[in-house]
TrEMBL record:
Protein's recorded name: Xylose isomerase
Residues that bind Mg(2+) 2: 266, 269, 305, 307
Superkingdom to which the source organism belongs: Bacteria
Binding site for Mg(2+) 1: 230, 266, 294, 337
Subcellular location, record wording: Cytoplasm
Species classification: Bacteria, Pseudomonadati, Pseudomonadota, Alphaproteobacteria, Rhodobacterales
Family indicated by similarity: Belongs to the xylose isomerase family.
The keyword DNA repair belongs to this UniProt entry's keyword annotation: no
GO MF annotation: an example: xylose isomerase activity
Entry's EC annotation: 5.3.1.5
Enzyme class: isomerase
Organism: Rubellimicrobium aerolatum
Description of how the protein assembles with itself and partners: Homotetramer.
HAMAP family to which the protein is assigned, alphabetical: Xylose_isom_A
Catalytic reactions on record: alpha-D-xylose = alpha-D-xylulofuranose
Amino acid sequence: MAGYFDGIPEIRYEGPESGNEFAFRHYDADAVVMGKTLRDHLRFSVAWWHSFAWPGGDPFGGQTFERPWFGDDMDHARLKADEAFEMFRILGAPYFCWHDADIRPEGATLAESLSRLDEIIDHIGGRMEQTGVKCLWGTANLFSNRRFMAGAATNPDPEVFLWSAATVKGCLDATHRLNGENYVLWGGREGYETLLNTDLKREREQAGRFLSMVVDYKHRIGFGGTILIEPKPQEPTKHQYDYDVATVYGFLKDFGLENEVKLNIEQGHAILAGHSFEHELALAAALGVFGSIDMNKNDYQSGWDTDQFPTNVPEMMLAYYEVLKAGGFTTGGTNFDAKVRRQSLDPEDLILAHVGAMDCCAAGLKAAARMLEDGRLEAARAERYAGWDKAGDLLGSDLGALAERALSAGIDPQPRSGRQERLENLVNRYL
């Protein structure tokens, strides 16, 4: 019987003036914005790993959380699932995401691990039927165990490649059984720590072939979801092959997969790559590979991926502006790849972290919708490039013809203001 969250009420929308911390102030799931409900715009998902599997440790200290479902047997795995669905009910969360290692204990052999995955998927599938909660995506943990210390698909040991292939097949089969809407790869140790012991060309080819086999298998079993790659810079290795959106797009083009695979973009990873979140979203949309997002934030005074819940509405507004401009989510959604701080010990902390994050995202999306519907930002952008609409097909010409045209026209271009501060002031009006 679930009982960890006993006494915590179901979270309902009460509006901006509510003083009840166990209520939404901005996320009204049924409110319609730009023709869709907030529920359908945001497609919130709870991450199984941070909310239910993470023990509260960090690089400098061990476990701080004591959860009743912590244990290495199937009874604890089923209890964890039951408590997870209770939290989904309290929050009204429509989706969840998982790694295999989050939902089942490791077996003594690969076969036992896959058998345990099958068993817990049956249990989770039953809870999904009872509650209507859906699977946004599944994935394989190919990074925690010491066998993956040199990567999974990129490992110099072919037996690790084989192990990884079997694990991903099992996880993709499980995601298919749960009617998952996506399947995610990487986010692990697909990179290198030194070139002194690395054959970079070989490892890239291994990763590309592995991903191609995943795509082929998806079609073979009739999985209708989207295959996603999650860009991830530096952490945990010095160089990751999936560093940022541009790097992953080049990788996909190299292996002819740009029409088969989309990107799951994380706020914290974007920052670690030296970009803004909205930059990565805009670039993915421009390249036609935008898929889904992992929502969190980093502590900007720390140099690593702290995976905190989002609390900055202006950041969320700029992010969801790009999501809305891209046409919104199709199979993707907003997955909270975020964890409470290791001192936040109570069940209420876990619930309220999600409540605040859902409100933050809702407030940001509503502000982004106001900005997009108003149209002034897009009008200013269009005005800046208006000369190109009258210039004819310059890009289809050649350098000699362009030079002749410039000389014959006697042009003398003068700089025009980019109006950055005016546009920043405009953006702040929608908050």
